[in-house]
Each structure stands twice: as structure tokens, then as C-alpha cells.
């Protein structure tokens, strides 16, 4: 059996008195494309941030996160990582996190800063080879015509494609994407998902992506991990995520919209979900 790319063990996180993650454990094996789903506020982003050490679990709670055999955090303490180790994980944000006044090309080149010698990274000097590689990354996301445009003049969908090119430039083995399509129109969202799916299929990258749209998760991901009130509610093949289970997962989240067939930001686009009253399902899915 292959060594897991991501191992999460008994993760607990509270903000003040509010417990946001409650004893969450799972593993992701190399090359998986996993959707992290659940109602708004269920803890998806918090969990994703734990995977890269942007958030630290409760002290002395015993929780542990390991990425590619490197411990990220344990019992509420972050482990220091070398720059080269940090580069192995790429993070895509809902709001893109580009430097607006810089060109598209420079934003992509920024992806290589972590792996270049520190002095050269401070000076921001890039080699011809790095520029060629950045151009190739932009070609993969279909933006080779826009290399000199300032990032803040792009559409949202284009910005997200630049952010993906930056992760490609970084040569990250694991891509974590936090609601990468939440602020995009349907066409741009589809383009971004197609690109991520292609990268996963062609390069064998491991991808974990938080999504509100269950139909998108069904189309592009093989496995779903669902959180409900900070607890692991479902972990399995996407095909086993039946409408009934989804109904129970989202049972208090925007049922009015579900009935009206108008998915909202807090409600997944359930597609063929039945308009039945919410029902409890056996919580034996994990
Ligand atoms: N830094 C923080 N300080 C205090 N509370 C926080 C912090 N970050 C997150 N929370 C709270 O933790 C809970 C889970 O938030 P999180 O963003 O992880 O949920 P989510 O499932 O990603 O939601 P959404 O789908 O709406 O983005 C929320 O109640 C949120 O208000």
C-alpha cells in the first residue's frame, strides 16, 4: 500500500468556546482528487489551513497532520519547515492572492521564489529558463497571450488561472484549493475545474478542493470528505454520496432554497436532489 500523501489524525480546533473541528481523521493517498464538502461553517477552510500549518490545532489535544511523511503539526505545535519542503504544497485561495500591480508573468514566476537561492529570491531576479517555464505554465492554463497584462486588470476566472499557473511553476506535488470557484461565474468555474482536473490526470498531482457545489464535486472528484458541525460525516467514493446522504448533510442549510431549486452560496447545487423533508441518516458513514 502506498504511503499516504496526507495523514490527519484526531484533529481538534476551537476558536474561543466554539469547537470548529472535532476529532477529524482521514488519509489521502497519492494521486487522489478529493472534494471537501459540507455546509457553510462546517470547518472546511479551517481544516484545509491546518494541512499547511496556516492554522494550528488545539494545544495538547494530540492531533497530528503529516504531509508526504513530513510532520506539519502535532499536539498544537507547528513544525518548522525548510523552504524547499514548503514548496511541495501549493495553495489556491478563493480570492486568488495575486500581486495586482505586477504582470501575469511575474505573478507566475513568484511560484519559484521558494525554491531559488535566497539572495536571488530577495532580488527577484529570474533566469531565462525560469521565464520559459513560467510561459509554459501559462500556456497550460490558456493565458499565454496575456503574459504582460497587469494582474489586477484580469477577470476573476483569469486571475484564478494565473494562481493555478503559479502553483504549476512551484511544481507542487499536492494542490490544496480553498473554494477556488466560489466567486466565479459558471463558465469560468468550469474552466478552472477542467484545468485542475487535467493537472490531476496528466501530472498525477494530489488535489484536495473545498467546494460548495456538490454537482461539481460529483463531476470532477473521485472521493468526497464531508464535514458537518466540525465532525467527519462522510468519507468515501463520490458515487456513494447519495442524494439522501446529501440531504441529511445539508439538512439545516438553506432547505427553502433547495425546495425552490435555487442554490445559494450556503447551499450546494444538488441537481437531482429530492424535495423531501430532512431526515436523519445513520451516522455510520465514516
Ligand atoms: N480565525 C478565526 N477566528 C474565529 N472563528 C473562526 C476563525 N476561522 C474560522 N472561524 C469559525 O470557524 C467556523 C468554521 O469556519 P470555516 O471557514 O472553516 O467553515 P467553512 O466550512 O469553510 O465555511 P464556508 O463554506 O462558509 O467557507 C465558522 O464558524 C467560523 O466563523
UniProtKB/TrEMBL annotation:
Q: Which residues form the signal peptide?
A: none
Subcellular location(s) per record = Cell inner membrane
Q: Which superkingdom does the taxonomy of this entry point to?
A: Bacteria
The record gives the membrane topology as:
Peripheral membrane protein
Kindly give the Pfam families that the UniProt entry links to this protein: ABC_tran
Task: Offer a single GO CC term for the protein.
Answer: plasma membrane
Under InterPro entries, the record lists:
AAA+_ATPase, ABC_transporter-like_ATP-bd, ABC_transporter-like_CS, ABC_transpr_PhnC, MetN_ABC_transporter-like, P-loop_NTPase
SUPFAM superfamilies according to UniProt: P-loop containing nucleoside triphosphate hydrolases (SSF52540)
Please name the GO terms that the record assigns under molecular function: ABC-type phosphonate transporter activity; ATP binding; ATP hydrolysis activity
Q: Which UniProt keywords apply?
A: ATP-binding, Cell membrane, Membrane, Nucleotide-binding, Translocase, Transport
Domain ABC transporter intervals: 6-254
Task: Please give the name of this protein.
Answer: Phosphonate ABC transporter ATP-binding protein
Organism of this sequence = Cobetia crustatorum
Q: Which gene encodes it?
A: phnC
Amino acid at each position: 500500500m502506498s504511503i499516504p500523501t496526507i495523514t490527519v489524525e484526531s484533529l481538534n480546533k476551537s476558536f474561543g468556546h466554539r469547537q470548529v473541528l472535532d476529532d477529524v481523521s482521514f488519509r489521502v493517498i497519492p494521486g487522489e482528487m478529493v472534494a471537501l464538502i459540507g455546509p457553510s461553517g462546517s470547518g472546511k477552510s479551517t481544516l484545509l489551513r491546518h494541512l499547511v500549518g496556516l492554522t494550528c490545532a488545539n494545544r495538547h489535544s494530540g492531533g497530528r497532520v503529516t504531509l508526504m511523511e513530513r510532520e506539519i503539526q502535532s499536539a498544537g505545535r507547528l513544525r518548522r519547515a525548510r523552504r524547499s519542503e514548503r514548496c511541495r504544497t501549493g495553495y489556491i485561495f478563493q480570492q486568488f492572492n495575486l500581486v495586482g500591480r505586477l504582470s501575469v508573468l511575474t505573478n507566475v514566476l513568484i511560484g519559484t521564489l521558494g525554491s531559488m537561492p535566497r539572495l536571488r529570491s530577495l532580488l527577484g531576479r529570474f533566469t531565462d529558463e525560469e521565464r520559459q517555464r513560467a510561459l509554459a505554465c501559462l500556456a497550460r492554463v490558456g493565458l499565454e497571450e496575456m503574459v504582460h497584462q497587469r494582474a489586477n486588470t484580469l477577470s476573476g476566472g483569469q486571475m484564478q488561472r494565473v494562481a493555478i499557473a503559479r502553483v504549476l511553476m512551484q511544481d507542487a506535488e499536492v494542490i490544496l484549493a480553498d473554494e477556488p470557484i466560489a466567486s466565479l461565474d459558471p463558465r469560468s468555474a468550469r474552466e478552472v475545474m477542467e484545468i485542475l482536473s487535467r493537472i490531476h490526470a496528466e501530472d498525477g498531482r494530489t488535489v484536495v478542493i473545498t467546494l460548495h457545489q456538490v454537482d461539481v464535486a460529483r463531476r470532477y472528484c473521485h472521493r468526497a470528505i464531508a464535514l458537518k458541525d466540525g465532525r467527519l460525516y462522510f468519507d468515501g467514493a463520490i458515487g456513494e454520496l447519495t442524494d439522501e446522504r446529501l440531504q441529511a448533510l445539508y439538512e439545516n442549510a438553506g432547505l427553502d432554497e433547495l425546495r425552490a431549486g435555487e442554490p445559494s452560496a450556503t447551499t450546494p447545487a444538488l441537481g437531482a436532489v429530492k424535495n423531501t423533508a430532512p431526515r436523519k441518516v445513520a451516522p455510520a458513514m465514516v
